[in-house]
Amino acid sequence: MSSSVSSSCWSQGERKSDLSAADSDINVEASLGPELIRDEHIWFKDGNIIICAGPYHTGDGPMYGFRCHASVLASRSPVFKTMLQLPNASGRQLGGTPCVDLLDQWEDIRDLLRLLYGFPIVLPGRRHPDTLKIVAGPMRLAAKYEMDGILNQLAPILERDWPSKYEDWMHAEKEFEQDYYDRHPDEILTGMTVDEYQDPAAAVQLAQQTRLLSILPAAFYDLSRIYLRTPAIRKPDGFFPRCANTRLLSRDDLERLAVGRERIAKYAAYQLGQNVWGELITGDALQLKGRCSKTDRTCLAYISSWLRTKLAGSDAMHILSSDPMISLDRMAQQLEADNHSSEYLSPTCHTCRSWFAHLMRKEAKTLWDKLPEIFELDSLTS
Ligand SMILES: [Zn+2]
User: Fold this and answer.
1) I want to staple 248 with a disulfide (CB 3.0 to 4.6 A). Which of 108, 112, 205, 303 is the partner?
2) For 276-294, how does the pLDDT look when each residue is reduced to its tens digit (9 = 90+)?
3) E-assigned strands of the chain?
């Protein structure tokens, strides 16, 4: 993960904010209107259209100009294609080149056009808190102007952080945890500063706005783990608990969050235990087949007792219901370890414990695959 991200995500230079190098004819025309700031990259000498945006619309600042090619815009966006066929509403020109005024944020237009023209974009590492800030603007504009190529280019960045497969999610979780400990060797993960995280509420909002539905199950699951809306309370160790800005969510998405969180809690409280005990019949069969290496074949009873301690009690239930993916994986890891101080696990054989570890991960994967149903996301795709 990169250690920091500069104010600009673009790798080449900084934006020039003066007109000293501008074409003289454009200087003359610009001096009659709002101050013009040419983009350092999107200002092609053979460009035949200037996209203008910025706070000049309300008289609060300069106009940012992007001289580009109408044919390029039209070929990548049906919306631009239609728009550019219409008569120029303002009739305004700069240096003989027609201007098109857009009311979108000028920074978003800049990023969109730079992506369109293939300028390299520097992206932070997995789950970096700045990733959403970097891709949200151009993605929203790409959705607005129906630029599928840009959406397809940026979608994998978010799908990397909120993947649809259980294995990818667990890989991301473990990589993030390891990365965090590397950077903060003396800290505990639960006391992480809010700046360390992306806000999954913002991811849900962006996914809905851009129809990137593939990230919604993981983003809702991530969101369901967070109970604070604002980082109001600084913990004694100086860290804020993780929070999510649920004000970004629509009413429907708030309902999805509430219903899904309730279902996960019920799963942890009832269904998980039923599934595990139901599988014990299969465990009996396994032992009867003679794969257990203990002559008295008591592993099953010991592991069952160990599981009961894990699945019982309010503390255990809270942890399990707030993040069953991690809880089940940690139980699997404990079962797979060979040295145990636990009075329940130390008398058991590796074969039986491995079978239970497999059971835990199978449970987690089954639950993960049900996330679209749990958060009622299926209706979005129909
Ligand atoms: Zn055994």
Assistant:
1) 205
2) 878 777 766 666 667 888 8
3) 36-43, 49-53, 63-68, 93-94, 97-101
